[in-house]
Amino acid sequence: MKKQAKRALTALLAVLLLAALAACGQNGGAKPETGDTSSSGSGQSAPLRDVKVVLDWSPNTNHTGLYVAKDQGFYEAEGLNVEIMLPGSGGADAMVASGEVPFGVSYQEGVTQGRTQGVPLVSIAAVIQHNTSGFAAPVDRGIKTPKDYEGKAYGGWGSPVEEAILKSIMDGAGADVDKVKFVNMGEADYFTAVKRDIDFAWIFYAWTGIEAELRGEPLDMQYVKDYSEKLDYYTPVIVTNEKTAASDPELVKAFMRATSKGYEYAIDHPEEAADILLKAVPDLDKDLVVASQKWLSPKYRDDAARWGEQKREVWQNYSDWMYERNLIEKPLDTDSAFTNEFLPE
């Protein structure tokens, strides 16, 4: 594990914790406003409550259900005026943990790392049931198995988790992670980097993999979940903070009722949902959004009884894996990290 990357991660977590403590008592972005009104189902005007949800990254098909819930009036029907916003420089986790906004998009790894450092994030829904990420290479690199990573250049961003996952699946294949050359991709995208100085990288197939298909640049892909059940973790997830969950549960339930409807709509109507995302974010590539949405929509709920459902063993398995590899300093209190209580029945 690279010491510099580990120090950077520790510093980031400390910033998150300080932000959370500094904003103790806040519940920003979730206060009732009396100025905004809309028509209720009875035809009477009712005040809407202004609420913010912050994305983890630029808008993509992981987020479609949020945009559908806003476009189709599902939030409004719950009395909410929801603003979907991009993360600030501190990131979505810090904004939610501090109470600057009540809801955000995160991932299981971030919640796990944060909670073991005292950051009060709580996962309230799994956006996708199974991990769709993996290591991808252009087919001309001949990377068919983890053993083939030896002697190749991996492009990443310097996270200790990257090397740990590579080591984990390479160990299982009898390969040596020390024979991989690690290259920091910086601001380069996958397609630029593989033409420049790397052979493979960690991607989400629903976006980068689908884009490769559309470009006519086929990939060899090894999904990390196929090498260990402990790596079939939730990414992304929807989060809130402990204060909002404890002091305003009705807000969380209302937000999740509408959000669930948004993702269920996207499951049943992928092309229409893609159009809604494109209407909200017209700069996105239409062909990519439509193809990605068709691929991803059935994976939102997959084999779960309902969209958003989280399993304790998934949280336990991945946090155990992280602890075994010194990616977190103490075991996770699993039952405090996630809840299904705010999902509609």
Automatic annotation (TrEMBL):
> Matching SUPFAM superfamilies, A to Z?
Periplasmic binding protein-like II (SSF53850)
**Pfam families (UniProt xref):** NMT1
Q: Which PROSITE patterns match?
A: PROKAR_LIPOPROTEIN
Signal keyword on record? yes
| Keywords for this protein | Signal
Keyword Signal present in the record's keywords: the answer is yes
Tell me which PANTHER family the record gives: 4-AMINO-5-HYDROXYMETHYL-2-METHYLPYRIMIDINE PHOSPHATE SYNTHASE THI11-RELATED, THIAMINE BIOSYNTHESIS PROTEIN HI_0357-RELATED
Q: What protein name does the entry list?
A: ABC transporter substrate-binding protein
Q: What is the lineage of its organism?
A: Bacteria, Bacillati, Bacillota, Bacilli, Bacillales
